[in-house]
Write a structure and sequence with these properties.
By secondary structure, this protein is mainly α. The protein is built from 15 helices and 2 strands. It is elongated, with a radius of gyration of 31 Å.
């Protein structure tokens, strides 16, 4: 019977070694994904500290240059205005048009709307963005700052170009160069009026989920998705207890002394901790293989790189704790293994008398 017990204990130990990284990863993912405050902080860091938003704005301007954006502002004008902007310029544009005081309420409304839906009986999330502060920012200085930044990147006009604009040859068009005043100031005023007009025509609120009821199939709405998320949350919360249960099972099957405790617990914890540590340190290699590009292939090429960095930024919230967790587990396993090696023989061990036969 003792031999059979040890065989089963060996199989359980193998399962423990292989499942430790997975269960800890699940736990870390649950701690991050289902914590609204942590998600909100991560999203704000991503939008305010990384280059994803400026690059997205740059890509949008490039796509807008393929067709007319609005009456009076042609595709050629868009290319002339935005074509010389560097990434640093786009960062400054973001700060002018979408400063932190605007992005924070938008991110808060989005995250809170989704998590309120998840924690309630509502069939659909409700995400409503307040636009009044955005419109106010455009009209009261943000728009002028953005337009000034754009025109500052234009090269000075040559005498021939100035003559074309002043003689009416290219009247009404946006110059590909910076005209001397009063022509330059007049063109800036035209673009600023367009920008402020577009901002003024925006609604005071934008409901991002207004059409969700029609797109969701069936009367259950998004309840199936909510159910799946709830099951994932429960599994993540209880995942670490699987390791504890397997350790207790090993104890019952094979441990009869301190020496055996060191061997049967120490080795699995050492190996499982090492695998967990390796996963925490090696996950960036998965991103470098290019396999993550597939789900992002629908994005413009210029945005794909920053989107991949954003994915890595979010994955770090889940994988980075594995380094500490794996180190602790491996260290605990090593200590147990050493204790087992230096322990007294089983016949003199108190565990021999206390353990059930």
């Amino acid at each position: 019977m003792r031999t059979i017990g040890k065989v089963f204990a060996f199989l359980v130990a193998c399962v423990l070694v292989l499942t430790l990284p997975l269960t800890l990863w699940m736990y870390n993912a649950g701690q991050f994904i289902f914590d609204a405050a942590r998600v909100k902080t991560a999203m704000l860091d991503l939008l305010l500290e990384e280059n994803l938003l400026p690059v997205a704005m740059q890509s949008f301007a490039a796509q807008a240059g393929a067709g007319d954006m609005t009456e009076g502002l042609t595709a050629e004008a868009v290319q002339e205005l935005f074509g010389r902007l560097t990434l640093q310029d786009w960062k400054m544009l973001q700060q002018a048009l979408l400063p932190e005081r605007i992005l924070v309420p938008w991110v808060s409304a989005t995250v809170e709307g989704v998590y309120t839906w998840f924690n309630s009986d509502a069939p659909f999330p409700v995400v409503v963005l307040e636009m009044r502060e955005f419109k106010k920012n455009i009209v009261e200085g943000g728009g002028e700052q953005a337009v000034q930044l754009i025109f500052d990147t234009l090269p000075p006009c040559t005498a021939e170009q100035v003559n074309e604009y002043t003689s009416g040859v290219t009247a009404g068009a946006i110059s590909p160069c910076r005209l001397p005043d009063p022509g330059g100031a007049a063109q800036m005023a035209v673009v600023l009026d367009m920008l402020e007009g577009m901002a003024t025509n925006l609604p005071d609120t934008v409901d991002l989920t207004s059409g969700m009821e029609g797109r969701a199939a069936g009367a259950l709405g998004l309840y199936p998705l909510k159910l799946q998320l709830g099951m994932a949350q429960t599994a993540a919360r209880w995942a670490p207890w699987l390791g504890a249960a397997l350790l207790l099972l090993i104890w019952a099957l094979a441990v009869r002394s301190l020496r055996e405790l060191g061997r049967w617990w120490g080795i699995p914890l050492l190996l499982g901790g090492a695998l967990t540590l390796a996963l925490g340190l090696g996950y960036p290699a998965l991103l470098n293989t290019g396999r993550m590009i597939g789900p992002l292939s629908g994005l413009p090429p210029a945005v794909q790189g920053e989107a991949l960095k954003a994915v890595a930024f979010l994955l770090a919230k889940v994988f980075d704790p594995l380094v500490v967790q794996g180190s602790v587990l491996a260290g605990a396993g090593l200590v147990l293994l050493i204790v087992g090696l230096v322990a007294r023989p089983p016949e003199d061990d108190a565990l021999t008398r206390l353990s059930p036969r």
